[in-house]
Design goal:
Layout: H1 2-23, E1 42-48, E2 56-60, E3 63-64, E4 75-76, E5 85-87, E6 90-98, E7 108-114, E8 119-127, E9 130-137, E10 148-154, E11 165-169, E12 174-180, E13 189-191, E14 197-203, E15 209-216, E16 223-229, E17 242-247
Parallel strand pairs: 1-8, 10-16
Antiparallel strand pairs: 1-4, 1-5, 2-3, 2-6, 6-7, 8-9, 10-13, 11-12, 11-14, 14-15, 16-17
């Protein structure tokens, strides 16, 4: 009888321990070291405009820096109020690849020289079999008034030459940017904050509408990039030409 009681007690103790372990809060594993001091670093964002991209990871100097998968239209780091990823300055080796063994995507490697204290946005574009990149400096200036800041990037894909585009703000009834060619990235301009507007991408010099972004409503003192991407010749489906935005600061 005593032996049976001891066995019963042992089973109860083991069960309680399993429950405690399963309920213990554990922090997510960090892919890269977390830092809060950016004074000796470069701040980087990566925007994936590559047509048909999926399951992408980003590596810097052979270390994986992304936790989640990236697909076309994704930005790293993600999050509305992100300021970017902390990258050590100097010549850094970037690798962007799809880890699926049967993928047709070409692993994309490039080197980028990062200056201490600077902010950069790296745009990955074209197609998964011929990826390209353009790195631009992201000059963040926090407005002294209540405005926000906006820039435009044209990374739509086409096998043939296509016209430059104008960016029209419907509610304000003005062109924000004009004659922006493929792979061009404009400078930031001030725009009203808390002003819900519809942004239309048009063929330059015409009212021919190519893509629409509904509900752009910037927060004061924040900076945003609007991107035209996708396949220029396709008007519906996953790879269709489209326009979207992401936050830089």
């Amino acid at each position: 009888m005593q032996l049976r009681n001891n066995r019963f007690l042992f089973v109860q103790i083991v069960t309680m321990l399993v429950l405690l372990i399963s309920c213990t809060k554990q922090e997510a594993k960090l892919v890269a070291n977390q830092q809060t001091d950016f004074s000796n670093s470069s701040i980087v964002q990566v925007y994936l405009a590559t047509v048909n991209a999926s399951r992408n990871y980003i590596y810097v100097d052979a270390a994986q820096v992304t936790g989640g998968l990236m697909s076309s239209g994704s930005v790293f780091p993600s999050g509305g109020a992100t300021i970017g990823a902390n990258i050590q300055p100097g010549l850094r080796a970037f690798l962007i690849r799809d880890t699926l063994s049967t993928t047709t995507q070409v692993p994309f490697t490039f080197a980028q020289n990062m200056q201490v204290g600077n902010r950069y946005t790296i745009f990955i574009y074209d197609t998964i079999t011929a990826p390209k990149q353009k790195t631009v400096q992201t000059d963040i200036i926090i407005p002294a008034d209540t405005t926000a800041r906006l820039r435009f990037a044209n990374f739509v894909h086409s096998k043939n030459a296509v016209p430059a585009v104008d960016i029209f703000a419907k509610r304000r009834n003005i062109n924000l940017f004009t004659n922006v060619a493929v792979t061009d990235v404009t400078s930031f301009i001030p725009v009203p904050s808390s002003f819900n507007d519809t942004i239309i991408v048009r063929e330059a010099g015409t009212t021919n509408q190519l893509a629409v972004l509904n509900g752009l409503n910037p927060t004061q003192k924040r900076s945003y990039t609007v991107v035209f991407r996708g396949s220029y010749a396709i008007t519906s489906g996953t790879n269709a030409r489209t326009v979207s935005s992401f936050t830089n600061y």
